[in-house]
Design brief:
The protein has 387 residues and is an alpha/beta fold. 28% of the residues lie in helices and 33% in strands. The strands form four sheets. It has a six-stranded mixed β-sheet with strand order 5-6-7-3-8-9, with helices on both faces. A five-stranded mixed β-sheet has the order 11-18-17-13-14, with no helix packed on it. Strands 10-12-16-15 form a four-stranded antiparallel β-sheet, with no helix packed on it. Helix 3 crosses helix 4, helix 3 packs across helix 5 and helix 4 crosses helix 5. The C terminus is likely disordered.
């Protein structure tokens, strides 16, 4: 019997997935259904966890750690191999974008269909449908088939239904990463409202800043085990410390291997592709790069000519987005890049800018981006043209 003060109770729960070490390699093996050695992969190992009513809890961990599987077990999409999971209260979930939607139904029809899955009858949905449509901001498109919707529109509709079914427990798996900034902010405001009204919220998120703001508690899942449970700021700090250790070990192995390549990304923010720039004026190039290379290097070429004096600058937005994946290798003050092209190089016509991220030891390319711009006496940029 679940403690009435708890919304979710998990006791000694283990989840495994079965895979085959040697898969079928020939048509004959497929037809005769011969299979190789069975391997039991332990995804979650002896997890015990109580989530109290009214708590807002984040599940954090690297990809593959088991946190999303844990959320699916709470929802009863998956079932454990051992142990028990009990919930206490009406539950709704946002685990997969558009799950429960029929692509040929309109947005309005899918509201009725999806809300019915959450346990509402027709009369209850009728009372809520105007609020659902208003929150989603999909009024002009609500009677169009959802197969015509973008991923952001899917998310708006799914979130709007989920928050209007009067659930006592809300489970969310990173779905709020989809959509424009305006609607993301709106969703977070709504989650804060639900939190303050004593709803129980469990969220899987890689947005560690959001976890600190929204959640009263963080649970760190590491390689299938519950590693740490407590104050979000403290748990996140320990999580990032371990991520830095793991990332450095990964980078060390990549450096020692002739086949493995460090991870990384590089990007040019300005100028934007096909931008028109004024003739004979210095051109500032801004961008960023992240990498787990022990000595990553960035090159910027203008019409195949290397640019000097590439400065590292602060990019807090990039740091927040990548601090988890590259813990131990990046810091807020040096993720940005900036350099200036001499005015004498900005002649009339088309020009090519290329930025390359290399491993400093092997000189192998990790990532690169290319864009073209046009120098013109009377530059006109489409994004600024109101006609």
């Amino acid at each position: 019997m679940i403690d009435q003060g708890n919304a979710i109770e998990i006791r000694n729960m283990t989840k495994t997935f079965r895979t085959y070490k040697d898969k079928q390699k020939t048509l004959k093996e497929m037809l005769t259904r011969r299979r190789g050695e069975v391997v039991e992969n332990v995804v979650l190992d002896d997890i015990s966890l109580d989530i109290k009513k009214g708590e807002t809890v984040a599940l954090i961990g690297t990809n593959g750690s088991g946190k999303s599987t844990l959320l699916k077990i709470m929802t009863k999409i998956l079932y454990p191999n051992k142990g028990t999971v009990e919930t206490n209260g009406k539950l709704t979930s946002l685990l997969e974008l558009g799950a429960g939607f029929h692509p040929d139904f309109t947005g309005r029809e899918n509201i009725y269909f999806n809300a019915a899955i959450f346990g509402l009858n027709r009369e209850e949905i009728d009372k809520r449908i105007d609020d659902i449509i208003a929150f989603s901001e999909l009024g002009p498109f609500i009677d169009e088939p959802v197969r015509t919707y973008s991923s952001g529109m899917y998310m708006r509709l799914a979130f709007s239904v989920a928050i209007n079914v009067d659930a006592e427990i809300l489970l969310i798996d990173e779905i709020l990463a989809v959509g424009d900034q305006h609607f993301q902010n709106k969703c977070f405001d709504k989650l804060e409202e639900l939190r303050d009204s004593d709803k129980t919220i469990v969220i899987v998120s890689h947005s560690l800043g959001v976890v600190k703001i929204l959640c009263s508690r963080a649970v760190w899942i590491y390689k299938g085990k519950l590693r740490l449970d407590g104050d979000p700021t403290y748990v996140i700090s320990k999580y990032l410390e371990q991520s830095a250790i793991d990332n450095k070990e990964e980078a060390k192995q990549a450096a020692e291997s002739s086949e493995s390549l460090p991870r990384g990304a590089v990007f040019i923010d300005t100028p934007v592709p096909f931008q028109s720039v004024p003739l004979n004026q210095p051109l500032v190039i801004n961008g960023w790069s992240v990498s787990n290379s022990l000595d990553g290097q960035v090159e910027i070429l203008f019409d195949d000519k290397p640019l000097e004096n590439i400065a590292r600058v602060a990019r807090p937005d990039v740091f927040k987005a990548y601090q988890e994946d590259y813990a131990g290798f990046i810091d807020e003050g040096t993720t940005g890049l900036t350099t200036t092209v001499d005015a004498s190089w900005i002649t009339e016509g088309n020009h090519r800018i290329e930025v390359i991220l290399r491993d400093g030891t092997t000189k192998r390319q990790i990532d690169h981006k290319t864009l073209r711009i046009k120098a013109d006496a009377n530059p006109v940029n489409p994004e600024l043209d109101q006609d």
